[in-house]
Design goal:
Pfam families: DUF1214, DUF1254
Protein name: DUF1254 domain-containing protein
Region (Disordered): 1-20
Shape: globular
Structural class: alpha+beta
Radius of gyration: 23 Å
Strand order of the largest sheet: 10-11-12-18-14-15
InterPro entries: DUF1214, DUF1214_C_sf, DUF1254, DUF1254_sf
Number of domains: 3
Strand content: 15-25%
CATH superfamily of the largest domain: Domain of unknown function DUF1214, C-terminal domain
Largest sheet: 6 strands, antiparallel
Domain DUF1214: 323-426
Order of helices and strands: HEEEEEHEEEHEHHHHEEHEEEEEEEHE
CATH architecture of the largest domain: Sandwich
Distance between the termini: 48 Å
Helix content: 10-25%
CATH topology of the largest domain: Jelly Rolls
Number of strands: 19
CATH class of the largest domain: Mainly Beta
C-alpha cells in the first residue's frame, strides 16, 4: 500500500547531521538552489497537490467536509468537476481523508454484488493500493493502519497497511444506466470510524494556488513533510532540500530566505511547471498506434518525473492491475487530435478484454477537463459496454458536429485527448497482447442503422 516513511529525528522533521555546502557567491547559489528547486517541485508535486485538495475539502474554514468522513458525489463528473483533472464518468466518486497517527481506522463496506467498486487507498506520496474484488474478494471489514503499526486486529478484520499517516480514500462505484439511486444507497452504507483529526495547526493552501505561486507550493510541501516524513528509500534525495529551508526545526518561511535563494526558487518553480505541462503527452509506453499505455501509475517507484506528470494530469490515478488506461493525443498518423480536423473514426476489432467494463472518455488538452457538450455526452462504453460480448467490432465517430453516427463522441473545436480505461483488465490487456488501434482521421460519416 505504499512505502514506509523514515522516522524524522531531532526536530521531528529532519535527521541530524551536518548540512551540505551552499555556495556563498550569488551566481553559484542561484545555480545550486535553482537546480535543487527544480528537483523539489518535481519530487513534491504529487504530495502537494493532494495536500491542497485535502485543504480545500476538509481543512479550510468553511470546507464542505471533515476528516474521517466520506464525501459522496451524487452525480457523475462533468465539465465543472473540481476534485482533480481527467475524472472518469463511469462511476460515482466518494472520498475521505484520514489521520492515522493515533492508530487504525475501520472501514466497513456493503455487498456490491456484481457491480464494480473499489476503494483506492492512496498514501501522501501517491502510492496506491485497492480494496476491491480483485484484491480482497468479498471481505467487507478492514483496518487501515500505518506501516509501523504492530497491533493485532480482531477476528474477521482484514488489515490494510499504508505508508503514511495521512491517507486519501477514493471510492468508485459503477453507475449502471440511470440507477443513481441504487449507487446512493451503496454509498450511504459505507462506514468509517476510528481515525483522529488534525488537531495541530497546519497551513491551508489552494489547489490552483500551489500550481501558480511558488510560496504556496513550498508551504504545502513543508506541511506534507512534517505530517508524513520522507519515504525511507528517498531520504538521500530529499535531504538536500534543506538548503531551500525545508526539513528544519521551524516551518518553512519565505522571509528566512536570502534574496538570491528566493529568486532561484521562484524561477525554478516556473520552469518545473512548464516541464510538467510539456510532459503530459509523454506518459506511458508507446503502443505503435498513437496510444500510450501507462504501466506504473499509482506505483511509480523512483520515477519521480513520471509520477509528477501523472499527478499533474490528474490525481488519483489507479494502479494498472485495477484499471489499465491508454491515452492518446494524436491520430494514427501522429497528428494532434483537434475538432478542427474531425471527424475521426475509432474502430476496435474486438472490445477491450475486461472482467468489469471499459470506456473511452474525451478531455480538453489544456485543462484536462471534460468537454462541455450540450448533450452531456463525455464518454462511450461504460455501463453500456458488455464485458461478456467479445464479438466486436466496436465503432465510434469523434466529431464536433453530429455526423449521424450511431456512436458519436462530441469533441471541442480545439485540441483534445482520449483516455481508454479498462476496469479489471483481462489477461490480454495485462500481458500487453491487446492494444487499441489508432484513431483514423477524416473518416466519412457512419450512418445510423
Amino acid at each position: 500500500m505504499g512505502v514506509p516513511t523514515d522516522d524524522l529525528a531531532g526536530t521531528g522533521v529532519g535527521r541530524s547531521g551536518r548540512d551540505d555546502l551552499v555556495p556563498h557567491d550569488a551566481a553559484g547559489r542561484a545555480a545550486w538552489c535553482g537546480a535543487l528547486g527544480l528537483q523539489a517541485v518535481v519530487w513534491g508535486t504529487p504530495a502537494v497537490l493532494q495536500y491542497a485538495q485535502m485543504s480545500e475539502q476538509v481543512l479550510a474554514p468553511g470546507a464542505p467536509g471533515r476528516l474521517a468522513t466520506f464525501a459522496h458525489e451524487r452525480t457523475p463528473a462533468g465539465p465543472d468537476f473540481a476534485g482533480f483533472r481527467a475524472p472518469n464518468v463511469d462511476t460515482l466518486y466518494s472520498n475521505a481523508w484520514l489521520d492515522l497517527r493515533a492508530g487504525p481506522a475501520e472501514l466497513h463496506l456493503p455487498a456490491f454484488g456484481d457491480r464494480y467498486a473499489t476503494v483506492q487507498v492512496v498514501d501522501a506520496h501517491s502510492n496506491a493500493g485497492n480494496i476491491s474484488r480483485r484484491t480482497v474478494g468479498d471481505d467487507r471489514r478492514f483496518w487501515l493502519v500505518p506501516a509501523r503499526w504492530r497491533g493485532e486486529a480482531p477476528a474477521g478484520v482484514t488489515v490494510v497497511p499504508v505508508g503514511t499517516d495521512i491517507v486519501w480514500l477514493l471510492l468508485r462505484i459503477q453507475v449502471l444506466g440511470d440507477d443513481l439511486a441504487a449507487v446512493h444507497r451503496l454509498q450511504d452504507a459505507v462506514t468509517l470510524t476510528g481515525a483522529r483529526s488534525l488537531d495541530d495547526p497546519v497551513p491551508i493552501v489552494g489547489a490552483d494556488e500551489v500550481e501558480e505561486d511558488w510560496r504556496a507550493f513550498y508551504r504545502g510541501l513543508d506541511a506534507v513533510l512534517r505530517l508524513n516524513g520522507v519515504p525511507a528509500d528517498e531520504w538521500a534525495h530529499v535531504r538536500q532540500f534543506r538548503a531551500l529551508g525545508l526539513l528544519g526545526p521551524e516551518p518553512w518561511d519565505e522571509a528566512a530566505l536570502d534574496e538570491v535563494t528566493a529568486g532561484a526558487l521562484q524561477d525554478s518553480f516556473a520552469r518545473a511547471q512548464s516541464l510538467l505541462r510539456a510532459g503530459r503527452p509523454l506518459l506511458g509506453t508507446p503502443t505503435g498506434t498513437g496510444w500510450t499505455r501507462v504501466r506504473d501509475k499509482g506505483a511509480h517507484g523512483h520515477n519521480v518525473l513520471a509520477r509528477a506528470v501523472m499527478n499533474h494530469v490528474g490525481l488519483g490515478a489507479n494502479v494498472a492491475e485495477e484499471n489499465t488506461s491508454f491515452n492518446t493525443h494524436v491520430d494514427a498518423d501522429g497528428v494532434g487530435l483537434a475538432g478542427a480536423r474531425a471527424p475521426y473514426r475509432l474502430v476496435l476489432p474486438t472490445p477491450p478484454p475486461a472482467r468489469a467494463f471499459w470506456s473511452v472518455t474525451l478531455y480538453h488538452v489544456e485543462t484536462g477537463r471534460l468537454y462541455a457538450d450540450p448533450q452531456g455526452r463525455h464518454s462511450l462504453g461504460g455501463a453500456a459496454a458488455d464485458p461478456g460480448d467479445d464479438s466486436g467490432p466496436v465503432e465510434m465517430v469523434i466529431a464536433h458536429e453530429d455526423t449521424g453516427a450511431t456512436s458519436w463522441l462530441p469533441c471541442p473545436q480545439g485540441a483534445f485527448y482520449l483516455i481508454l480505461r479498462i476496469y479489471s483488465p483481462g489477461a490480454a490487456v495485462v500481458d500487453g497482447s491487446w492494444v487499441p488501434p489508432g484513431v483514423a482521421a477524416a473518416a466519412p460519416p457512419v450512418p445510423a442503422s
